[in-house]
Design goal:
Elements: E1 3-9, E2 17-21, E3 32-37, E4 40-51, E5 64-65, H1 74-86, H2 91-97, H3 101-104, E6 116-119, H4 133-144, E7 149-150, H5 151-156, H6 161-169, E8 173-176, H7 196-204, E9 213-219, H8 225-236, E10 242-246, H9 254-264, E11 268-271, H10 277-288, E12 294-297, E13 309-314, H11 332-342, E14 346-351, H12 356-363, E15 368-372, E16 383-388, E17 394-395, E18 398-399, H13 400-411, E19 415-419, E20 428-431, E21 448-450, E22 455-457, E23 464-466, E24 479-482, H14 486-496, E25 502-505, H15 515-524, E26 530-533, E27 546-551, H16 565-577, E28 588-593, H17 599-606, H18 609-623, E29 630-638, H19 641-654, E30 662-674, E31 677-686, H20 689-706, E32 713-718
Parallel strand pairs: 9-14, 9-15, 10-12, 10-13, 11-12, 13-14, 16-28, 19-26, 19-27, 25-26, 27-28
Antiparallel strand pairs: 1-2, 1-4, 3-4, 3-5, 6-7, 6-8, 17-18, 20-24, 21-22, 22-23, 29-31, 29-32, 30-31
This protein binds adenosine-5'-triphosphate and zinc ion.
Amino acid sequence: MPRTARIALNRPLRRLFDYRIPEDLTLEPGQRVRVPFGHQTLTGLVVDTDTPPPDGIELRSIERALEPWPVLPTETFHLLNWASRYYQHPLGECLFMALPPALRRGQPAKEKHESYWQPAPDGEGQALPANAHRQQALLAWLQEQPAPASTTSIRAAGFTTSQLKSLADKQRIRPAAAPAFAGIADEPELTPTLTPAQSAAAEQLPTPAEGFNTALLYGVTGSGKTELYIHHLKTHLPKDRQALVLVPEINLTPQTVARFRQYFGDRIGVWHSALNDAERLAVWLRVRRGEPLILVGTRSAALLPFTSLATVIVDEEHDGSYKQGDGFRYSGRDLAVYRARLNRCPAILGSATPSLESYHNAKQGRYRLIRLEQRAQNTTPPSLHLLDIRSRPLEGGLSRPAIQAIRRTLENGEQALVFVNRRGYAPVMMCFDCGYVEECPRCDTRLTYHRQDRAMRCHHCNYQAAARDHCPSCQSENFKPVGQGTERAEDTLAETFPDYPVVRVDRDSTQRKGSIQGILQRVNSGHPCILVGTQMLAKGHDFPNVTLVVVINADGGLFSTDFRAPERLMQTLLQVSGRAGRAQKPGRVLIQTCHSDAALLQQLCQHDYLTIADQLLAERQTGGFPPFRHMAILRAEADTMEQSLTLLNTVKADASFPSELTVWGPLPALIARKADRHRAQLVFLSDRRSCLNQALSQLCTMLELRKPSTRLRWSIDVDPIETG
Ligand SMILES: Nc1ncnc2c1ncn2[C@@H]1O[C@H](COP(=O)(O)OP(=O)(O)OP(=O)(O)O)[C@@H](O)[C@H]1O
Ligand SMILES: [Zn+2]
């Protein structure tokens, strides 16, 4: 009897395709094959090999297997099957997401040749120009490496191939043979020495010997969670097993990877969006081969083909970047925990500001709560103060007391950090004669003024136009920026403190590759300076000489309709506050607000995060929101709002939802028009995950059958973090 295989293709189709297996071929799930599809030949992934052959249909035959082994090992394959059902996303796309781009395209699962480099002996080669800082840094880095470094790892450490080439041209480095990968032979013997508080936490962390166990490590800012992770892995990770360490953003915090490398050498693999295709393939293959790597990576590292995972760590587990915002909308954190369960190994979720979801799990006893409430180097936490700015004169958004505090900090030889929640010069351009406000022609939003290149930009659709100096409506010249952006704060600070450098950190100032490293180096030199920037500055940085943090305006999140806004506001304020006073000197935080009586801000100054989180959880429970109920959103977007709403209204009317399912809407999204697409949504809430999931699959089937036009799109977001 002819054998049949079920194949997944990398297509947004909620179905699989049956093919005949040639006589001489043995296949197993997770293998790559080439199959005919229409007039093309495509790469497919085997999902099932004992599918009953359909009656009366002549199936086409699989052409060949691309390799005799499954590129997706069993456990990764299970993970993706589960995720496809949980997130209601087509299996084909989920499976292909877990392959590096080269393998998706059908290229062979082999590495391209890698070159390795080592420093030339002292005294050889030409001197480096005094201004070639990056070349010097690269040379120093190579000298620190225990073995020759590959081009891939050199690039992963933040250097460029042209810096490498310059050093080679000057004969300061020379090619080397690839170091034999003897497991972890090169791993340095170092283990960090823990503080007493860290040791107490370390003893409670679940070890691989305990099997599956999830811990929530609540470690205040500056408590040294990274040291704790390193110590834990050094002590408990078997030498022949793999570990996954998820981090929100590698490029922003190169020090974290550097610290891991210091203790694990070449056992560290890195995975993030800045790797090129060849680098991705190389790391992916090392993981698939089962090399005992400690893989430090961003969200999609949760999909890597680990074969002997023994520990999972998710740092800054509350971070929004773990949730994929389009397509396969998975949470890297949640998949990482699911993997730990499949592998019967521990998962450690760490944060100074845990997500309410994880904290709720800890309170329910599903996660082990471990508290680390002392800073590693400075036992006094930063002190927080509210500065009411109602009817106070402001200079470029800064109040007099804030300016005085910055001055004192600089005069003491310390650094100040000014947090502004928007990039650009000002979020609004307004005519003070006729009231005209410049809006995005494609979105329901205002355009941000960027003074550096005199442009008006939409931060939602990237629309861009030249800035004008008079009102396009009444021609008045009284056309002015309103509100604060990072560029404006930078200007004001540079004018007020002409003797000190002002360093701006936001998406615009860090676009060039390697620029963040340069900025961090400047700050870490410790000289007095003012750092001004967005959320980027709040994430995991360790600036020892920052003793003052000023938050220009804390009010953005106070009155939002998004039920997650208070949680997010608390997290941002505490994370940015946590950058102050991390070394020996105490830290101070000034939070400017027009609502110093707001309960949330008051609590922030008086209580620890978990006390506030208890309060926020109580509010979520009263409102019937996650984590007390499960949530999903069905979104539609079309050329008109009517089309979007009609689609959602019809499916809502046609579906037979159980009474325990709460359905809200359809309603236009908070920003109803984005890039000329009109967006509406239906929100679902249920006490039971299975009830929600069944309703969603029913919806998917209906929507598939309805085949809305390509101009009318829909998508499902399970456990959404953006609910507007
Ligand atoms: N045991 C230790 N001995 C000496 N210094 C330590 C120790 N543990 C941590 N540190 C130092 O304390 C500082 C804070 O550590 P780290 O950045 O890991 O904190 P964190 O918990 O990740 O903070 P955040 O959540 O704010 O990012 C770092 O400079 C680190 O080198
Ligand atoms: Zn726009």
